[in-house]
Amino acid sequence: MSDTESSKPAAGAGSAWRPRTRAVHSGSRRSGYGETSEAIFLTQGFVYDSASQAEQRFVELGDDEFIYARYGNPTTRMFEDRIAAIEGAEAAFATASGMAAVNGALCSMLKAGDHVVSSRALFGSCLYILEEILTRYGVEVTFVDGADNEQWRAALRPDTRAVFLETVSNPTLEVVDLRAVCDMAHAVGATVVVDNVFATPIFQPVIEMGADVVIYSATKHIDGQGRCLGGVILGTEEFIRKTAEPYLKHTGGAMSPFNAWVMLKGLETLHLRCNAQADSALTIATALQGHEKLNKALYPLVESHPQFDLARQQMSRGGTVLALDLKGGKEAAFRFLDALEIIIISNNLGDAKSLVTHPATTTHQRLSEEQRATLGITDGLVRVSIGLEDTDDLLEDIQAALAAV
Ligand SMILES: *Cc1c(COP(=O)(O)O)cnc(C)c1O
Fold first, then answer.
1. What pLDDT is attached to residue 366?
2. pLDDT below 70 — which residues of the chain?
3. Which atom of ligand 1 lies nearest, measured to the CA of 348?
4. How far is CA 365 from CA 323, 368, 377, in A?
5. What residue ranges define each of the domains in the chain, with the CATH number in brackets?
6. Whose CA is nearest to atom 7 of ligand 1?
7. Pocket around ligand 1: residues whose beta carbon is below 6 Å from it?
8. Is the pTM of this model over 0.90?
9. From the alpha carbon of 166, which atom of ligand 1 is closest?
10. C-alpha–C-alpha distance, residues 28 and 235, integer Å
């Protein structure tokens, strides 16, 4: 191999690999040095051998050719190829944050006059894009109760271009019947966009269930250790190359190569971390059922969840987040948060460190009291993101803090 050429697996290599192997090897490209760990190509631009080579690259980019890091970069491309292999998607475009991915996916496909149907239970910034931004540009948005298939059916129209949803949702862990919603959406020709952050890339194969476009905030489980912001849009080659990429490369939402490298290394341990975190979350949620200080201890794969049967069909594991509804409202919730010793107060999730937040006064403060009530975000609701600490230490921390309420 020449000393400047990079090597990458032959096309199709790894397609027979199981998910954990893909998470470690897919998408790797080695430089002439033959490095074991993926290199960080911390470069904005790329040098051409001749003027005509530059001209040719602007006509058409080959598989391993780059022109500017806002359009693509070898480290970023490794991350895109690896997450696409894990998700079973044809292609991916990495973005600066999860919100750049949500905004990019929606704005790249919609225009004034289009109609969108979205579930109401969304991450706060996603709700802002749908409610405040898209509507400002003449897109009509209808919100539905995501758990109610009849509301989806009634809202979908022949001019519906896109359907947007999170399952499970933030912070109330509501489950959408993904297969049914995809079938109804496809019957009117709409593109289904799923924000799959809470279910992680490994517990819910949404493309298999019919989703057309999948979005992750890589900031969460993909980094998994609370360091870098990032996001990714996954879909067909056609959607990514012809719709999402032109919008993103010209509007500047690209992922930094350094962050892409952190995310690549994060993918190598994704299965180990998420499975350990989901094990702890299930154990803790189960132990907290019927606790005297709680109205509810919600977790998708615990029987008390109102959509337990659906969650069990759609998800191999329940994810890493629990929602606890404390008796005694805000005062009780604040005492609980303040009494925790290991679990720290922070409005993030998917971190190795366990985190707790009070949605009504933080991430969902912007909503009216009525909107929060509709979404089930009570004053006593706290969201707990379970990390990698010892399960028993976390359970004891929660039990002691509940006793202090
Ligand atoms: C965090 C999050 C986002 C936004 O991701 P950022 O990386 O913070 O921009 C979008 N959707 C969901 C469900 C999230 O949890």
1. 86
2. 1-14
3. 1
4. 17, 8, 10
5. 17-268 (3.40.640.10), 271-403 (3.90.1150.10)
6. 98
7. 97-99, 102, 123, 125-126, 166, 170, 195, 197-198, 217, 219-220, 229, 231
8. yes
9. 13
10. 20
